[in-house]
Predict the structure.
Amino acid sequence: MGDFGVVADVSTIIVNRLTEALRSLDPNDPPRAQLSDLEDRPSQATLTVFLYEIAEDPTSRNRPPVRSLPPAPPTSRKPPMALLLRYLITPWGGNQETQHQMIGRALQVFYDDAIWSGEELTGSLAGTTEALQFTLTPLTLDQKSWIWYAIQKPYRLSLNYEVRVVNLDSLDVAELRLVRSRTISGASRP
């Protein structure tokens, strides 16, 4: 399960994976992936990873509490908050051909391995049973334009990916008391 750093961990995992994949485009001076808020335009060939929306996954709502297993003291924890992370992946710098190659390579990475789990995960997700599912989000040109308008930048060719389900652990833990004895009360027998 993920602690409060899980969102940053997912972003770092994506950047590292894309950076590794982009090395095949130019062994001498490969483009790189970088986490960005899109404030500054990169000067060299770069694939920016911009987290533009975080939402709760509606399909994972109303899950039951998580109970601890013996021999640990009995506790009940609120279920983790299931998050959807939406990313804008945008090529910058270089020429148009390089930018298109960066987009193509990113598409290959997310398509060929659409579910990342196990040793592919680092940070708070390392060693967990978590799995990140990547889906290319089908947005209309209007929807894409609104995203760029919201961040006050001119529209650029980009990919919109949704990552689900990122579980954020709750800190709401209740200690459960064991039943040690019981008393039955009620009407007396004649």
